[in-house]
Amino acid sequence: MRGSRPLPCAERTVRPMKISRIETFLAPPRWMFVRVETDDGLVGWGEPVVEGRAEPVRAAVEVLAEYLLGADPARIEDHWQVMTKGGFYRGGPVLSSAVAGLDQALWDIKGKEYGVPVHQLLGGPVREKIRAYAWVGGDEPQAVREAVTAQVEAGFTAVKMNGCGRMTPVATRAEVRACLTRAETAREVLGEDRDFGLDFHGRVSPANARRLLPLLAEYAPMFVEEPVLSDYMQALPDLVNASNIPLALGERLFTRREFLAPLHAGVAVLQPDISHAGGISELRRIAALAEAYGAQLAPHCPLGPVALAASLQVAFTTPNFLIQEQSLGIHYNRGAELLDYVADPEPFRFHGGSLLRTDRPGLGVEVDEAAVRAADARGHAWRNPVWRYEDGAFAEW
Q1: What number of other Cβ atoms are within 10 A of residue 371's Cβ?
Q2: CA neighbor of 203 nearest in space, from 53, 384, 331
Q3: 252, 66, 104, 256: CA torsion to nearest 10
Q4: What is d(CA 392, CA 397) in angstroms, rounded to the nearest whole number?
Q5: Orientation of helix 173-190 relative to helix 144-153, angle to 10°
Q6: Considering just the CA atoms, what is the radius of gyration of the chain in Å?
Q7: Is beta strand 43-46 parallel, antiparallel or unpaired with respect to 350-351?
Q8: How many other C-beta atoms can be found within 10 angstroms of the C-beta atom of residue 217?
Q9: Chain centroid to CA 3: how far?
Q10: In the chain, N or C terminus with fewer CB closer than 10 Å?
Q11: Are 317 and 126 in contact (CB under 8 A)?
């Protein structure tokens, strides 16, 4: 009779692990790490943070920890469902980022338990290296040439920069020309075989975007990022039709459902952030959704080493992956750098502008715990600047 046979020995003797401790650490320049420990001694790391709002995310992690403590870390999908849907009020960047970091840590534990990298648990790799771009600023147009040249000399085949600084809602001719000059300068330095992304950073109104996109086409950016704020989804179809430049967005979207509108509008590149958009579990679903629309994945990641390591695990197993953001040398990194909290920098060594696949277990990053604890003792209270127009009114940063 079915069910009457004795269980195999392994099933009778193996006791599920339990999550025994969850800690968070604020680390300069503007990051936060979460450490999840099991009663078997395995430790997983994640990076839950909203830049400029780290403290509320830390509180959200503490609330979610009430549910996770004592639970089996292997039940990642079930935990993701409960953490995202178990409250009457759901969603938003703070909760989604808290879930994201914890999700990363649970995948890290699972990979370490089985002795394999997370990408093997997600179906195995589809590529051996990940192309990345370097950030070159762009707020000050006169510095673009020097910055792009430095990254080319460092071996990068792609860069990204801001397309403008503060821009009035109906731009002057001088503001338009400054944007075009940035693009022209980047293309001159990069030549025909390298790429640049142009980030409007939500600073550009829909009217300005419609004006700028056709003028930028001759410089052939790889993409224009956040052509308008995500608040203006209704403007996207007109912007997609305004020029042949691929449009990209997604760093301020947090669930796969929020990506449906831009995909329907024809956005070509999705940029979810693995530390904001629900972690590894949700990022891989967003990637699959993008593939159904013929769109590419270029994960947003101006953050720390754990977020980058988690992003790479998804990128290695995503067929429609385009390029990876990373924060080495980015202007936000004051007081600490990307590699300051890792014990072994080898997984983050660039080879011709790419990161190579490794078989290190879990997320593939060895966190320097002593450095993280020392950083938390200093802490940080990073806030983004607040910009204003000449008349004193608020301006998008």
Answers
A1: 16
A2: 384
A3: -40
A4: 14
A5: 20
A6: 22
A7: unpaired
A8: 15
A9: 46
A10: N
A11: yes
The C-alpha torsion from 217 through 249 and 329 to 109, rounded to 10°, is -150
User: What is the chain's length?
Assistant: 397
Can you spell out the DSSP letters for 228-286?
A: S-GGGGGGHHHHHTT-SSPEEE-TT--SGGGGHHHHHHT--EE--BTTTSSHHHHHHHH
Distance (Å, rounded) from C-alpha 279 to C-alpha 228? 25
What pLDDT, in 10s, does the model give residues 157-208? Answer: 999 999 999 999 999 999 999 999 999 999 999 999 999 999 999 999 999 9
Q: Which residues are catalytic?
A: 201, 300
Taking CB atoms within 8 Å and a gap of at least 24, the contacts of 329-332 are 329/134, 329/135, 330/135, 330/302, 331/135, 331/137, 332/29, 332/30, 332/51, 332/302
Q: Scanning the structure block, which residue is given the tokens 């935990």?
A: 79
Interacting residues of 324 by C-beta distance below 8 A, sequence separation 6+:
130, 131, 132, 133, 298, 299, 301, 308, 311, 312, 315, 355
Residue 74 to residue 19: CA distance in whole angstroms: 10
The mean predicted confidence, pLDDT, of the chain is 94
249-268 pLDDT tens trace: 999 999 999 999 999 999 99
d(CA 127, CA 174): 44
**Helix, strand, or coil (residue 313):** helix
